[in-house]
């Protein structure tokens, strides 16, 4: 009797599983519009224009990407219009990059960021970036060597992030920096010219508004101070007169006033210490290990004495460039390094607020110490 009851219950359980499984709605890829990249631009009267780059599922299709553009007052309003126009249901589960047009980034984007963060389909690991012009111009342009612009942007950010060439920003990282009193977010900055897409600059934000940008060389120093850094290459210009004694006599009659040294960073760590409360004064100690890839003049690196002299020249130039970089952030009143965070944690009862740090940061003072050691000077990877 008990065996019969157990058998009946088992059959009922299997039948229920079959019914539940049959109720699950299948969503074949061919019947979905997978958004890979999304662009948002500013229009008059605070309206926005949204551009969605979709992944092409059909292998027989000529174009591997479809691009939809609509206008509305909100991101949800744009999505509704795009769904009405597209034959398949649009989904954001494969969204990899959100691109903001520069005019919109300068206007302020926190409301849009908040909407993205609340969307359950969008992961916090999605990359954020700025387009030098309107994002729609970049996403709608047809590049001969790029089959899907959305996938290309994602892979370019990911590759540069993996090799630490530039600072990349995810939705999670932007919100973390924005919500931290004493630190401002940054984003990669894209532009295109002659049918080529470039990502070499970093957009700087004051709260949620873009206020300027750093070029590739400035971004190198920003990463040195901001993060533990184990990659990246930089060309440093040194005054020829400082290295004159290291240059062979046959090359001393060159008309060039500058010697260019290309170094790659093997390892670096910056320590930031508050040494005075008023005005806020910081000591930055940078320890780095680098290798030389190229020198524009014939200099023998075979002796320790030559290496030490070259290190001193490089350290002085790096120190000068870091000072210039920090001075520029003070002029723009943006703190991408997070000196305000250091000040808030080091100064007891500072009660630091955003507005208070905006007043203090332009007046802050800095002492910079650079210890860059050259290693493996004869190796080129």
From TrEMBL:
Pfam families linked: Spore_GerAC, Spore_GerAC_N
Keywords recorded for this protein, A-Z: Germination, Lipoprotein, Membrane, Palmitate, Signal
Domain Spore germination protein N-terminal: 27-191
Localization in the cell: Membrane
Principal localisation: membrane
Domain of life: Bacteria
Example GO BP: spore germination
Record-annotated Spore germination GerAC-like C-terminal domain positions: 201-378
One of the record's GO cellular component terms: membrane
PROSITE patterns: PROKAR_LIPOPROTEIN
Bilayer disposition of the protein: Lipid-anchor
UniProt keyword annotation of Membrane present: yes
Keyword Nucleus: no
Cited InterPro entries: GerAC_N, Spore_GerAC-like, Spore_GerAC-like_C, Spore_GerAC_C_sf
The family this protein is said to belong to: Belongs to the GerABKC lipoprotein family.
Listed name of the protein: Ger(X)C family spore germination protein
Protein's organism: Brevibacillus laterosporus
């Amino acid at each position: 009797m008990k065996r019969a009851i157990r058998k009946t219950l088992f059959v009922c359980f299997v039948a229920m599983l079959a019914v539940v499984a049959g109720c699950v709605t299948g969503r074949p890829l061919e019947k979905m519009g997978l958004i890979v990249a999304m662009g948002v631009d500013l229009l008059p009267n605070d309206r926005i224009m949204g551009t969605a780059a979709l992944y092409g599922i059909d292998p027989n299709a000529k174009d591997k990407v479809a691009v939809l553009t609509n206008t509305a007052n909100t991101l949800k309003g744009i999505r509704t219009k795009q769904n009405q126009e597209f034959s398949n249901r649009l989904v954001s589960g494969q969204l990899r990059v959100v691109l903001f047009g520069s005019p919109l980034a300068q206007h302020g984007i926190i409301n849009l960021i908040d909407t993205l963060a609340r969307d359950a389909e969008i992961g916090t690991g999605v990359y954020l970036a700025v387009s030098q012009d309107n994002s729609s111009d970049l996403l709608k342009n047809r590049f001969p060597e790029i089959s899907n612009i959305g996938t290309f942007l994602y892979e370019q950010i990911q590759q540069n992030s993996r090799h630490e060439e530039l600072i990349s920003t995810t939705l999670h990282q932007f919100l973390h920096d924005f919500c931290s009193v004493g630190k401002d977010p940054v984003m990669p900055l894209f532009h295109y010219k002659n049918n080529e897409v470039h990502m070499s600059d970093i957009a700087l934000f004051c709260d949620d508004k873009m206020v300027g940008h750093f070029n590739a060389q400035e971004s190198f120093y920003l990463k040195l101070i901001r993060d533990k850094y184990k990659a990246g290459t930089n060309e440093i210009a040194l005054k020829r007169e400082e290295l004159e004694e290291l240059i062979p006599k046959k090359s001393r009659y060159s008309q060039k006033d500058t010697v260019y040294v290309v170094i790659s960073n093997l390892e670096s760590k910056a320590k930031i210490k508050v040494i005075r409360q008023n005005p806020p004064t910081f000591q930055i100690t940078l320890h780095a290990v680098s290798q030389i890839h190229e020198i524009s003049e014939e200099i023998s690196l075979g002796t320790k004495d030559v290496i030490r002299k070259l290190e001193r020249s490089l350290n002085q130039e790096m120190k000068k460039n870091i000072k210039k970089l920090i001075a520029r952030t003070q002029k723009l009143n943006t703190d991408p390094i997070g000196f305000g965070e250091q000040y808030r944690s080091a100064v007891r009862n500072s009660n630091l607020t955003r507005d208070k740090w905006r007043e203090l940061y332009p007046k802050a003072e800095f002492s910079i110490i650079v210890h860059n050691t050259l290693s493996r000077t004869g190796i080129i990877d």
